[in-house]
Amino acid sequence: MFSLAAAACILLASATSSSAGQRVGPNQGFVGSVNGRFDSATILMACFGPIKPGQTGHPMAGQMLEVLSPPPPIAVGPIHPGSTGASATRIVAVLGGDSHVVLARFTRYFQPVAVPQSVELPCAGSGVVRFVPKPASSTSKPAWVSVSFVGQP
After folding, report:
1. Coil, strand, or helix at residue 16?
2. pTM
3. Residue 89 pLDDT greater than 90, yes or no
4. Which of 27, 52, 75, 117 is most buried by its number of CB atoms within 10 A?
5. 85 near 19, Cβ under 8 Å?
6. What is the structure's pLDDT at 72?
7. d(CA 60, CA 109)
8. What does the alpha-carbon distance between residue 99 and residue 35 come to, in Å, rounded to a whole number?
9. Long-range contacts: 53-57, Cβ < 8 Å, 24+?
10. Do strands 143-152 and 41-48 pair parallel, antiparallel, or not at all (unpaired)?
11. Domain of 141?
12. Torsion angle, alpha carbons of 98, 115, 30, 11, to 10
């Protein structure tokens, strides 16, 4: 008998194979993923030793962002979908409401992009990665993933 997790993997794999590389375009539903999670993701930070309040640092290598469309039919935990709206042809991943901290740009679905090690992020605490459709329209809606920033011991 299949477990729920096995069924979710099969459904996600079939959605992935049929949509891999599809271009971002108008009127598409999508979700964002941070390190393979749709919510409560962890971003490991290259911050060592005792961390002071407000301290920033750089992300560790090997961490990934991705946009998926259509959203997976089954997801474990909360999922916060978005819509490209009437005119979007790309999706930009940004930290919270700060559009100056660009983490990735996507023109295709199911193509992971590494979190850049050059950006400065909090060494500890929580935040949100927003996946924002561009150009925006009155019908577009960002997807989002809550994240925790974790410094290394």
Report:
1. helix
2. 0.84
3. yes
4. 75
5. no
6. 73
7. 24
8. 21
9. 54/122, 55/122, 55/123, 55/124, 55/151, 56/120, 56/121, 56/122, 56/123, 57/120, 57/121, 57/123, 57/151
10. parallel
11. 4-152
12. -150
Give the distance, in angstroms, between the CA of residue 55 and the centroid of all CA atoms in the same chain.
Answer: 23
The three-class DSSP label of residue 88 is coil
Residue entry with tokens 């193509």:
111
Q: Fill in the amino acid letter for 83.
A: S
Cα separation of 90 and 108, whole Å? Answer: 8
* Alpha carbon distance 55, 51 (integer Å): 7
Respond yes or no on whether the N-terminal peptide bond of residue 70 is cis (omega within 30° of 0).
Answer: yes
pLDDT above 70 for 134: yes
**3-class DSSP assignment, residue 148:** strand
Domain count, the chain: 1
**Closest Cα partner for 139 from 63, 62, 42, 26?**
26
